[in-house]
Structures are given as structure tokens and as C-alpha cells.
Amino acid sequence: MPKYKKNNEEVSDGVNLLISILVRYPEIGTISFDPQNNWLKLTFMLSAIPSQLDFSNAKRLLKSSIIAYTTLEGLPLKTADIQLDVFEKVAMLSIFRDVHTISKNEIALLIALLRKTFKDLIIDYNDSLLEEDLLLQEEVIEDMLTNLKTHYDENRLIGIREDGRVLVFNK
After folding, report:
1. Phi-psi bin for 129: left (phi > 0), alpha (psi -120 to 50), beta?
2. Phi, psi of 90 (to 5 degrees)
3. C-beta of residue 33 within 8 angstroms of C-beta of residue 157
């Protein structure tokens, strides 16, 4: 599987994972990897602030879906938390999931639920990506998740979108 490179040096699996997730899923605004706690934080931007009731219902739906998914897959659930941060006219919904049990299919499920639940979900479409590119990103995501489950990355990482680009930093 190809890895992104910079200056002829191989980039870590954690960096490749964050890049691939952001490229594949334009709904995700930022993604963080915390190696000490072994979790990923997926952050979604909303252009309107949901009511407390709407957020509580969405949180219950997302959490029960994560529990159902991991149960069906026979995986022990370690970290599954959802929080909402509000800033003036936008909201940031964050989902915390442990690296050992999250999968590409679960991420796709969560995004489908968020798209259905929040009509004001901010999506940074990239029309230049072909279907083959998206499929390649899915393969990279699955491979990098598998690698991180056995050989975790030591660096705290954060990936963000900026002006149609994906940037990843050591935190």
C-alpha cells in the first residue's frame, strides 16, 4: 500500500491514517490521534448550534450505534464519547473512539448518521477526487488502522482541512 512521503522519508502510519481519513471523508473537519490514550478524535463542524434536546438525541443515537456496531463485530468497547463545543454561530461535534476497535465501516456509519441527523453539517467537498481515489483511501484507512492496533505511533497528531488542503501536525 502506498505511503505518503516527504523528503524521501516514510511518514508514520498515524500520519497516513489521518491524511486518508480527511481525504476520504469531507465531513470530518479535524482529526486527532492521542497515543497515550489510544484514541482518535473526529471533529465535525455544524453551521448552526443544535438545541440541547437535538444534541442529546444525536448523542444517544451515535453512542447506541457504536455500541451495537462493536457488539455485532464482537469487539470490546473501550472509548466512545461524544461532546459538543459551541462557538458563537458554529458548533463542533467531537467523537472520541479507541483505535483498537474503530473501523473504516464504523466511521462511514457515523458519518451517515450525522448527515441524516444534522442538515447543517459542514462538508468540504473535493470534486477532483475520482471513485478510484476514494476506494484507495478506504484501503489505506483499513491498513493504517490495522497497523496502529499492533504498532502504535508515539506522536500526538492532528489533521485539519485548510483551503482545500489536508495538513497533519505533531501536537
Report:
1. beta
2. -125, 160
3. yes
Which grid coordinates are listed for 138? 478506504
Q: Which three cell numbers stand for residue 98?
A: 479507541
Alpha carbon distance 31, 131 (integer Å): 23
pLDDT band at 37 (very low <50, low <70, confident <90, very high): confident
Cell 462511514 -> residue: 108
Question: Which parts of the chain are beta strand (E)?
Answer: 5-6, 9-10, 28-34, 39-46, 80-87, 90-98, 157-162, 165-170
- Amino acid 119 reads K
Average pLDDT, the chain: 85
Residue type, 142: E
Cell numbers found for residue 124: 468540504
> Would you say 18 and 31 are in contact if contact means Cβ atoms under 8 Å apart?
yes
The three grid cell numbers given for residue 101, joined into one nine-digit string: 476497535
**124/111: higher pLDDT:** 111
Report pTM.
0.86
